[in-house]
Amino acid sequence: MGLTDILFGRKKLKGAVREQLFAISTAYVTMEVELGLRFARAAAVCFKPLSAGEFVRAENELQELLDAVVQSSGSRVRRRTDEFGFEWIIVEDPDLEDVVTAVHAVASELHARGFGPQLLAAIFPFEGAERKVYWIYGFKRGAWWPFVPIGDKQERDNAEELELKAKLEPELPIEPDLTRWLGLFNAPV
Questions:
Q1: Is 72 helix (H, G, I), strand (E, B) or coil?
Q2: pTM for this one?
């Protein structure tokens, strides 16, 4: 980024880091056996909406991509736009590894088609004894963090999140900066 970019407020978006996504597959054994968390049979990829000019070209390519993911994995894939205008690609399948592979395929294809900077996060819900636990993967930093919402309020259980961090840090690349642990309230999974 140059001086003129700083002065005029322009900055280039950081590309996506996709490879650490697979770490959730191996960490799942610990989640299930030691923590009693069960995969909730779905995950979602969130990305920024495209500009009007990019949208027409990307819309057809995105549908082709989703069709290919469905054929290769056998997973159910659907799209949704949330109340903030972000796009979600939701992958449903009872097998965590199939879902991780499909999410990675979606992220890889979006990146290959020039939309890597729009990739924001992938979210994987798990059913716990008391409440849902979400593991969120931030594409920009290539790291995971836990998210444990409390009820219907927009509050979270920070103590449980820190406990999950401590227990899974040896297996997952955890985001070290706690201020980046964004909560994705009302995610479509």
A1: helix
A2: 0.85
